[in-house]
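Most newcomers find our protein records easier to grasp once they have seen one. A record pairs a protein's sequence with a compact description of its fold. An example says more than a description, so a record of this kind follows:
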Amino acid sequence: QVQLVESGGGSVQAGGSLRLSCAASGRTFSSGAMGWFRQAPGKEREFVAVINWSSRTYYADSVKGRFTISRDNAKNTVYLQMDSLKPEDTAIYFCAVRSDGFLYSDRRGYNYWGQGTQVTVSS
């Protein structure tokens, strides 16, 4: 059974930073793509960033230049470094895995999901 566990969420003031982690267990995803999505209250879940097995990345325009996704294949873990946070970044952040390794933003292609971690940015 695959399990994804996010950590690192919390509350921060605008302009601050947070680093999210997502550890995968149950199987390895060295050839897959690992991504981050977020969902704000009353809004649909939206794509944030994704990274493939060779560390190629793709970001949503709203976070480009502020967020950095990385992964440690040996630890089966993906990270999201979030800098220059804004109040509109407030959301529950989910990590997800797609087995095919493509750098797609469509959430329908992601096979496994974590439970999410709350990020709150105050002005």
